[in-house]
Amino acid sequence: MVLCPVLGKLLQKRVVLASASPRRREILSNAGLRFEVVPSRFKEKLDKASFPTPYAYAVETARQKALEVANRMHQKDLRTPDVVIGADTIVTVSGLILEKPVDKQDAYRMLSRLNGKEHSVCTGVAIVHCSSKEGQLDTEVSEFYEETTVKFSDLSEELLWEYIHSGEPMDKAGGYGIQALGGMLVEYIQGDFLNVVGFPLNHFCKKLVELYYPPRREDLRRARQDSIPPVDSFENLSDVEAGHSEPAHGEAGRGWDGPGAGGDQQAGSAPKADGYRTAEPPPFPADLLELIDGFKASKALFTACKLKLFDVLKDEVPQKAVDIASKVDASVCGTERLLDVCATLGLLEKSDRGYRNTESSNLYLVSDGEHSLHDFIMYNDQHTWNLFTHLESAVREGTNQGHGALGRKAQDLFQDGPLQSKEDQLRCVGATHGLAKLTARPAATAFDLSRFSSACDLGGCTGALARELAREYPRLQVTVFDLPDVIEHVSRFQRDGPETARVRFLAGDFFRDSLPRAELYVLSGVLHGWPDDRVHALLRRVSDGAGPGAGLLLVEAVPDAEDREARPGLARCLDALLRPRGRERSLAQYRRLLEQHGFGDVQVAPAGHGLAALLGTRVAP
């Protein structure tokens, strides 16, 4: 339910949040605002020393974020947004601005500065109203900031490091999140709690009232400046419109109903004879239409990757559609349309000179890049896409649909027997490698593993997690143990580095062959793919091979993981339906599994991206 009509004024508009912050998204969604998320690409490299105050720096950063998104969306032939919201949160202590820590040591330095002291949390917000005239973008920017005082308790070194090892500080200004575990560090706050979380909703609503409903002269005498206007003010907002009060900014007659909109009545809400308006039309279902069309965007990305468009465009120089079409052996008209779609999706940049990759596309979509997801995308195109066309049958029958979608009897490509061809094997290994590269570092740093000198990553595929473990812990020797068909392709995915010498690969089947001896065993993304009997069999083998004091690190996507996202959870739920050999388990269930097989003192930590990590220690039999 929106705070009507303050946020309700935005329901008929295309509102864009220029931030990837899940906290800002949650605050605005809970308030009932409908919006799109288009993360800003503005490089936050403003000279802090050039600003008279910290809040001026935060406001200007928020302004630049919002304007970058407004200009980019306008230039890419998308419908110009009506409103773009930008925000930037900083923490200041003793005049020093603290933003997000770059690593654990940086997080420790930040939290040590805050320990036992008061500090300020400041959020700058920019509201950019946009309109397009004769192809030119016209913007009007409104800005404000909110400041909240926060006091940390006196905290021990042990507690600070325990919090840092939880992984929570790494994406938060000042190195803590008050809405989660970081709340235990805070003794008191003075001011807006949501401002500390990341977005000052109260002040935002006040600003909307100021912009859309400038007060009448007689109202100024009774206006209160320290709260959102009282209920009777909201009830009389339509009277303000009827009174044709002067606009807050700009000139009347704008094409959008924002600052400068004047007192014109909205279309479809003409007054009746008794002065009451007819019912407003239902809001435009932008989110629903986007969801309906979502499969088209996926298929466009799949097709662009299959044609290797992003490989062709990995150089900095823009290229014309006719030249690109020749290089990928496709029609000019079809290639140009696909390029335009990719530009609309934010995968390419389009200018008068032609098309070129975005920074993200160069990083993740070029097929031979270090962090490439190309194989994962191709796996989804060639296998998962077909599998999901059988979703209705899976729902009706509750049975595995692999035989219908993939032409084999209930065989999951990741688990059941040899793959059909070497190409299939390589694609599957590449897909697993691409995902593992994204999640390896949060998993490797979820706990302090420095007490172990040897580790064995069971089912570790190309060794992405093993390399991160070796990089993080210089004395750790890691063995990757996986099937021969997997180990055969490992050399294709190895990069040079000092940690390479401490990672070795051993072929075998962890259900049948002897497990390598190690002080730490790792099972990352393995157990969820197997039914209970196979899970217990594998854990028994690990337990039998682990001596007292040995560790077992388990990394899995769980439905009650603290860092979960709705869409990844949805995908895992449907995967479990279509490939029902394994199943999802809760944190409590995984903890019980470890304890049943002799691993006690189980610790739990978020590992990012909807994952949770559990570390158990083998107790003496």
UniProtKB/TrEMBL annotation:
The gene is ASMTL. One of its GO terms (molecular function) is nucleoside triphosphate diphosphatase activity. This is Acetylserotonin O-methyltransferase like. Residues 289-367 form the O-methyltransferase dimerisation domain. PANTHER family: BIFUNCTIONAL DTTP/UTP PYROPHOSPHATASE/METHYLTRANSFERASE PROTEIN-RELATED (PTHR43213), BIFUNCTIONAL DTTP_UTP PYROPHOSPHATASE_METHYLTRANSFERASE PROTEIN-RELATED (PTHR43213:SF5). GO terms for biological process: methylation. It comes from the Eukaryota. GO terms for cellular component: cytosol. PROSITE patterns: SAM_OMT_II. Residues 243-279 are annotated as: Disordered. Its cofactor is a divalent metal cation.
